[in-house]
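Data deposition worksheet. Section B asks for the primary sequence of the deposited chain exactly as it was used as input, without tags or linkers unless they were present during the calculation. Section C holds the resulting structure in token form. Section D is free text for depositor observations; keep each observation to a single sentence. Incomplete worksheets are returned to the depositor.
Section A, Depositor: J.P.
Section B:
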Amino acid sequence: MAESADPPRATFAPEPGRPLSAGVAILATAVAVINLLVGGTLTAVALTGHVLGAWPSPDPLSPGLIGAGMLGTAPALFGLGRTRTWEQARTLVLPLVVVLAGLFAVSLLNAGRLYLARGGPIVSVLFSLGWLFVLGLLCVGAAVCVTGQLLRRSGPQIPRTAPLPGWSKPPLAVLGSSWLGIGTGLLFRPGFWADFVPWHTNRVDAQALGVWALALGVGVLGALAEDDLDRTRPALLSLPGTALAMTVVLAARAPHVDWSSGPALGLVVMVAGLLTAGASGRLLLKGGAAGGAMRSTG
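Section C:
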């Protein structure tokens, strides 16, 4: 009797892109929860005209804007868990790493200025202690999760299905470079660049605001480098959310801002740019999806 041949084994082609690891998704969700709690508290306290933070601030506006940045990015971080690949998540994850590592480094470099070191109201001292502990924990988690993500095996390259319109690239380059440049200046030369902030700040405030500005610049320029609206879908949600939260804080503390100065006008334009970039990106995505549906049924 002839031996029966074994049936051929089915082969499966790997899916395009680098699969998003569970660690990165969990990290994003954890940061989103903390952003809602801490960011919401900082924003609410600032809106009442009081100061809450890990260090003393001369005006509630600075910690309020830090809280607004946290609050505005929370919905996008919650949505990151539905993302399948690293390519679709990195324009949001990389700015997140900048914020975590930057704020932790600023806190350590200015440890002597924290309430934890200099003393103060018990609530502020406890907040300062929790701020350092949670940031340090998140930095370790981010380092582990992102390193593990980059070591994951990648499939074929994901094709770009929704490239950025040509008219959008120059404004995005200007917007991203503006946030990146201002953030770099505030972070590394706070003594000089803090004078350009149109409200009262101190060294730690200037550096913390610089970290957030730097992260926004990285996010916008990262989206420009990706050149694909579908890849930047999660990050697009964070831009209008952050812009709206910042607008609320700035409007509530409007009398404390020198609106006649050039930096104030520049800030308004840059915040409006974030709102416009995020909103137009979402509209273009919806338009592309609707066009694709019509073509498939035509």
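Section D:
Confidence is low (pLDDT under 50) at residues 289-298.
The two ends are 57 Å apart (CA to CA).
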